[in-house]
Specification:
Layout (H helix, E strand, L loop, with lengths): L1 H10 L12 H20 L2 H8 L10 H5 L6 E9 L2 H5 L6 E5 L3 E15 L3 E12 L11 E3 L3 H10 L4 H11 L7 E3 H6 L4 H12 L17 E2 L4 E4 L11 E4 L11 H4 L11 H5 L4 E5 L4 E13 L3 E8 L26 E3 L9 E4 L14 E2 L5 H4 L2 E4 L6 E13 L16 E10 L5 H11 L1 H33 L1
Parallel strand pairs: 2-15
Antiparallel strand pairs: 1-2, 1-3, 1-18, 3-4, 4-7, 4-8, 5-6, 8-9, 10-11, 11-12, 12-16, 13-14, 14-17, 16-17, 17-18
Helix pairs in contact: 2-14, 6-7
The protein binds 2-acetamido-2-deoxy-beta-D-glucopyranose (6 copies).
One 2-acetamido-2-deoxy-beta-D-glucopyranose binds next to loops.
Length: 487
Amino acid sequence: MKSLKMKRNGNDKKKKDPYCDLSMLLIVFSIVFFGFLSGLLWCTNFYNSQLMKLLVIKNGSYLFDSWVRPPVSPLVCIRPFNYTNTDHVLKGYTDKLIVKEVGPYCYRESTQKTQVQFYTNGTVSYRDNRTHQFVPELSKGKRDDKLVIPNIPYFVALAMVRNLGLFPQITLMSLLNRQEPFPVVKAHDSFFGYDNAIVTVVSAVSKIMNKPLPYEKCGLLLSRSGLSKDRILVWTGETNPELAGQVVNVNGVDTMTAWKARECNMVHGSDGSRFPPTKVGKKEPVSIFSRDSCRRLPLIFDTEGKFQKEIPSYKYTIDPDYFKSRTFNNSCYCTTTSECSYDGVFDISSCADGAPILISQPHFLNGDANLTESLEGINPDKDKHDFSMDIHPRYGLTMGMVSRIQLNVQVKKSDSNRFLALPDGLILPLIWMEISSEAMPDHMFSLIKHATFSVRYVELFLQWQSLILFTIASICFTRRTTAYIMQ
Ligand SMILES: *[C@@H]1O[C@H](CO)[C@@H](O)[C@H](O)[C@H]1NC(C)=O
Ligand SMILES: *[C@@H]1O[C@H](CO)[C@@H](O)[C@H](O)[C@H]1NC(C)=O
Ligand SMILES: *[C@@H]1O[C@H](CO)[C@@H](O)[C@H](O)[C@H]1NC(C)=O
Ligand SMILES: *[C@@H]1O[C@H](CO)[C@@H](O)[C@H](O)[C@H]1NC(C)=O
Ligand SMILES: *[C@@H]1O[C@H](CO)[C@@H](O)[C@H](O)[C@H]1NC(C)=O
Ligand SMILES: *[C@@H]1O[C@H](CO)[C@@H](O)[C@H](O)[C@H]1NC(C)=O
């Protein structure tokens, strides 16, 4: 080595530095290039935003097919409340209703986005088409188990007639009272539709009046199954990757009319499949736009965890404020129909054409004590009834979730109504529903794993490599210039 160096020095007197044996032009170029690159890689999230561009919703992109037809089919497990002493309560022998959680009745839900249409302003619209397949091995009970459940159309009608004058009210009530307030219905039919005398009559009348009802049957999950009537418009992320999956409008409407003020009526939030990565990265609150409740569902950071034991994830949970209608921030959700009487339930009647339906956490978890005063058989348990979502800290993608929501119907009647022996304001639990994404298919899981770990290593490698090359080029530059001056 030494002899080689001596030789070269002897041959060429000008080149004194064998380690920086490059032309000055190349050295200067290297300084500028690697300086710029390391600045980019160390000081901005350039690399990340390049990656985010791959996640844009675009026909033909790598993930497009799994956006149209998600490979994860969530399991929807329904636990109805069976009313076991309605005879006694309706006859006035006792005022405590006994409810018993039964099931679960589990269905595999597959979703396909149909009528997908792209627009030039960076948005795409679609309608969901969902199908449900009963999974007997995960269920406890059969599809045709007999349940005693509240007659929803009856309670809807009750709420509607209460504001009429005394005479029409008595007339309608005597008609209505031929209906059972608590009929016996088969489990599957109570979710996906059974014939109900009230619905049949109302439906026939609406047809004559040229305003057909969306459904001719009664069922709690009717709106969730089949082709959705809502057309959702979301950002593809092409204009701004941060916005991908954020809902722009529903059926062309970006401001609803259900609530009192604009901040409550605005359509915003994610479609649930992904969230703004910079917000998630900083553990800031995010939200999902929930069509069923006409509002955004706020989610807050809960804990850091590992998704399927390997991929780092941020667990988000439902913001307890969501169910506190009376707090100042939620006051615009309180209207003359949605009365906000209790904490722990969210009254969606303003969003459901006046039907007195309320959403809560299962078993009224975190709810007012007086919600359960007239009910026996309600046992809230945080571990069994909480809501959680696993979000990728870097890409904001939803990796897994367990969503748990209970549906309830409220008795709303006038004081003069003596036909029904249930108190005004009583909230009757109907079902609670758990939607859980099960284990991710292997190819998706390894894709996300690579995008998490390999990509991080590549990025670290590039960051350090560019920094080292920048440093070497700078040293060379210094040595060459000092050598030049010394000469
Ligand atoms: C995607 O592009 C292909 C080929 O251009 C076309 O046949 C298909 O209908 C497009 N899919 C959607 C959902 O637009
Ligand atoms: C629901 O309650 C009714 C009345 O007590 C009973 O006959 C029926 O078997 C119960 N259903 C289930 C699934 O437990
Ligand atoms: C983008 O175009 C769609 C369809 O024309 C329109 O409904 C939507 O309001 C537009 N979005 C924005 C943000 O202008
Ligand atoms: C919805 O899905 C079902 C079952 O896969 C299918 O038969 C039906 O044609 C689909 N509807 C639309 C509008 O795509
Ligand atoms: C209301 O919202 C604001 C900002 O969105 C927040 O700073 C404040 O803490 C909230 N107040 C309550 C009572 O939750
Ligand atoms: C529920 O109970 C609390 C305290 O016991 C009371 O202040 C409140 O008015 C009750 N709410 C209703 C709607 O009865």
